[in-house]
Amino acid sequence: MLTHVLFLVRRLGQQRERGQGLAEYGLIITLIALVCVLAISAVGGSLADMYNTVAALFQ
Distance between terminal CA atoms of the chain? Predict the structure, then answer.
């Protein structure tokens, strides 16, 4: 009986660690997405101007 309880406690601990790892990956992906959005919004205006300039050259 005691070994069964210890097995369940160890298994529960492993599930918490897996959940923690998943949460960390989620935070990392969110941070990367935020950096990408900020970079695109910072450079977006100059890229639009460049595309418009190039498009005007070929018209």
Answer: 82
